[in-house]
């Protein structure tokens, strides 16, 4: 099974520098342009199903792609953004004032950052890998798209690249509406390309 994992288009909170986590935020006009460009970049694929996080910014992205490929769309909670606990809803500058040590570790890309009330990188990677392995039995020899979130996807790529605890998660970041490609078969998950974003250069 081939899996294309996609980050949603730019949201209002992305533009404002707010840590969204499980909070909701609508797609911007720029975000819509990014999603249209993403659809054009994926036009040569034959997609049989799309799975999405339940967040509206992800569902808006997924609906555009589902219409393009005329395929079914399914929401799954395991594809949601990382829960950022006490930091959710804060702008980055505010986190540095109120939780300086934690915020600096988070912004430095440390996988070891513990957030009160939030998820660890292991919580996120475990739910994603569980989802992918379950999916492989449903879509053998098919191509599916997964629409998720920036931190969730960088954790997934980090895990697939070896998951070193002293690594910098920022290395595996996805721009809004960028994508990566995986091959999934049973327990085996192979990362074939990641962070593709050349289609976004003219989206503003």
UniProtKB/TrEMBL annotation:
The cross-references to SMART domains, in alphabetical order and at most eight, read: PGAM
PROSITE patterns xrefs: PG_MUTASE (PS00175)
Q: Which UniProt keywords apply?
A: Hydrolase
- What Pfam families would the database entry show? His_Phos_1 (PF00300)
Please tell me whether the keyword 4Fe-4S is annotated for this protein. Answer: no
Q: Which InterPro entries match?
A: His_Pase_superF_clade-1, PG/BPGM_mutase_AS, Phosphoglycerate_Mutase
Organism whose genome encodes this protein: Cedecea davisae
Protein name listed in UniProt: Histidine phosphatase family protein
Matching entries from PANTHER family are given as:
FRUCTOSE-2,6-BISPHOSPHATASE TIGAR
Tell me the domain of life: Bacteria
């Amino acid at each position: 099974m081939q899996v294309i994992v996609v980050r949603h288009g730019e949201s209002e909170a992305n533009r404002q520098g707010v840590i969204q986590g499980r909070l909701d935020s609508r797609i911007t006009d720029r975000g819509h342009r990014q999603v249209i460009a993403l659809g054009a970049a994926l036009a040569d694929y034959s997609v049989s199903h799309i799975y999405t996080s339940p967040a509206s910014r992800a569902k808006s992205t997924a609906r555009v792609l589902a219409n393009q490929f005329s395929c079914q769309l399914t929401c799954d909670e395991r594809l949601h953004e990382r829960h950022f606990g006490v930091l959710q809803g804060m702008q980055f500058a505010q986190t540095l004032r109120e939780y300086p040590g934690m915020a600096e570790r988070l912004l430095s890309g440390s996988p070891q950052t513990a957030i009160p009330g939030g998820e660890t990188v292991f919580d996120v990677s475990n739910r994603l890998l569980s989802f992918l392995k379950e999916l492989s039995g449903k879509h053998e020899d098919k191509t599916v798209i997964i629409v998720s979130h920036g931190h969730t996807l960088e954790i997934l790529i980090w895990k697939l690249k070896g998951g070193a605890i002293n690594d910098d998660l920022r290395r595996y970041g996805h721009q809004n509406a960028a994508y990566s490609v995986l091959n999934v078969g049973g327990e085996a998950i192979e990362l074939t390309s990641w962070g593709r974003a050349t289609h976004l250069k003219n989206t503003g």
